[in-house]
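hey team, just a heads up i'm posting the complex here instead of the shared drive bc the drive is being weird again. everything in one block, sequence lines first with there labels, then the predicted structure for the whole assembly after. its two chains so it's a bit long, scroll down
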Amino acid sequence: MRYNTFGASGLIDMPVASSAPDAELAFTLSSFARQTRNTLTFQASPRLSASFRYAALRKIMGQHGVIYDRILDRSLALHYRILDETRRRPAVAVGVADFIGTGIYGGEYLVATKALRPDLAVTLGVGWGRYAGVGGFANPLGPAFADRPDRVFAQGGTITRNAFFRGDVAFFGGVQWQPTPKLGVTLEYSSDRYPYEDPAAFVRRTPFNFGLNYTLRPGVQVAAQYLYGAEFGAQLTFALNPTRPPHGSGYARGPATVRAGTPLARALAAEGLVLTGAQVVDGRMDIAVQNTRFPDSAQAIGRAARVLAQIAPKGIDAFAITLDAPGLRGPAVVLQRSDLATLEFAPNGTAQIGQQAEFATAAAGFDNRYPVFDWSLRPYITPNLFDPDDPLRADVGIALDAQWQLAAGVIGRATVQQRLAGNLDQTVRKSDSALPHVRSDFALYEREGNGDIAQLALHWYAQPLRDVATRVSIGLFETMYGGMSSEVLWYPGGRDLAFGIELNALRQRDYDGGLGFRDDAMTSGHASIYWQGKGGYSAQLDAGRYLAGDWGGTLTLARQFRNGWSLGAFATLTDVPFETFGEGSFDKGIVLTVPLSWVSGRPRRDALATTLRPVTRDGGARVQVDGRLYPLTAPLRARAINDSWGMFWR
Amino acid sequence: MRWLLFCLLFAACTAPIPPAALRAQLTTDQIARLQVPMLFVSAPQIKTAATLIPVRQNGPVRIWQTRDGAQIATRDGLVVATHGLGFDLAASDLDGIAAAIAGGPGEYKRTLSHIMGDLRTSVQPYRCVLAPDRSKPQNPAITVLREDCRGPDPFRNLYHIDAKGRLFWSQQWVSPKVGHLEIEVIRPDK
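-- predicted structure starts here --
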């Protein structure tokens, strides 16, 4: 299996019907005739893959004989396998090559692939748009689909649906041979005429392409190809799979051995657990802990349970362990002391302790121990991608995070950043936005701030009912906004749904990263529905008022893996017309979370979380608040404990 | 700082000492002076070796630990579980092998459990045969038993037992990525 030059599973330029392994995430860099394509492809489900492509194109022909020396083009592609391959039948897939974008790669296909032998596969496809450039014939879908509208050199971003599967169609195909496990040979007949590149960028002579690909090591593939009788192209693919952690279950120290007489709080601290409450009622010891170390909730509970089993006084037969966050508390996990002794090394001990464990409502009236102060120093990187002047800009520096739990539920959080190096201050583009500049002046913040207060806020969390959490925050929430923010979240137990409301009264901060505000005040707020389905698929719908005063909604779809990985995409539509919004037409992007424990194998709860926006404009913008209720309460809930139960004895 | 960067890039921070060299550092004198039982364990596939001492006992299971917190849990010298090796053994069903070593049936079933990347436990069944290994000429006072297990990832374990019936050296399989642990009892219980 190889990725093609467009970053989809394919031949060389053309697609195939088969899919990459489920959950695979691949980055493909390909170059040919100075057409460079960077594609990030995610196999979102066993059948569906999505690709985000960022291409740097040279010598592109526009309308009326204009030749653009350089075009930076973003596009989104989808590939869906309709039928699986069987002994008699080929796999069949349908795809759209340029779903939201300028349409330069606009084309759709229906493709079939069949393995004749384990090492030999043939592909035959029929394509529209770009895939119908050579040997085209009339569209069999009928007269309504006969004409394909011309590509418009517009601002992009709109879904050009009235072009899909329209116009002439043509056949394409190819053969892939895998002589050795590492080496692949591909011959293809490409129906792409390269209408915008030929002849300004290169001269196309034949429809036949020939390619070799070689796997250097698992996940790294190089490819070389001779294309269209014109030029050689080269390609590099890096692939990884979130479900295959490079360090397995990690290098965490084994469960701590506790000497008799050790105070409980100190014994738990050795496991990175902060004891926030303990009491004994009727032979059961109830404790609440804040987990500062383990990415998996059940592992934290398992570690706490083994500490208790070692040092709890005789006569205590059961333990109830609750995961705590400031002011918020999950359900208690009730465990029998005798089970902890007998099942720790039982062949099927994880499942057995799971059958014996019960969830209960956490006891009230814990002797909460405050204040708790915690700080850490970390490096940070702030990338700014896709600026046409320089598509890869970033600042790096060090950040100091501090948090201080003053009382039950009251926590102050501060982040101070010191920039060390970078080139974000070279961003010279001025915002031309017709809307209030709620986000598009980001370059001014980057230029004027060096040592920044990224965050300085006080939060009050409470849980008035078992399944209801509240938050009131005041202070500086992010580099651009401060003010007041309040939130209510209801997460009915045992359900896939949660509901939230957030209201914010905000002021825009000064550009220099200090304590001052600008004059602009705004009110924003949203009602949100969160859904977490089976297999890790999740959705979030937010509807309300955005920073520029626009009203609308944001839909986020994501796949969350139990080990903390999350990949998703969002789109926001508001009452701002596409023309007023400007480049991109509406706000959209990709959200990616990579747990650092997955990367390093060392247990830690933090993650690398990135939002990739093709362009930052003012429509559909929201304030960022660290410590929103849904992500804060999720690891405490029964769902997270059940999902990570496999880690109980780890 | 440059050294640290090198470490981060090439993961070469713990310069691997060859297990044999590490083992050679332990002199007979030192071993004689040990106050606690000790194992010397090397894992050739992941190029690591360490000494372990017992830190905890849970019923018949003894938990041994390295200085940096990695653990191996054993029952009568047979590995039940490991911690901190990366692709750890989460659990193992030892009834068949323990009975076979004690003279019971030489063919038995066995399961090994590993944690998958999605945090699920994969319990894999094996069919094993334990038989004396007479492939090499050896000291008649030592019994060498060879365990061959067929299943998802076939493996072979070796157990060296002395005249008193004590397991003093073994080679036991953990997982495809970790491979075998070579376990030498440096100082047995007194």
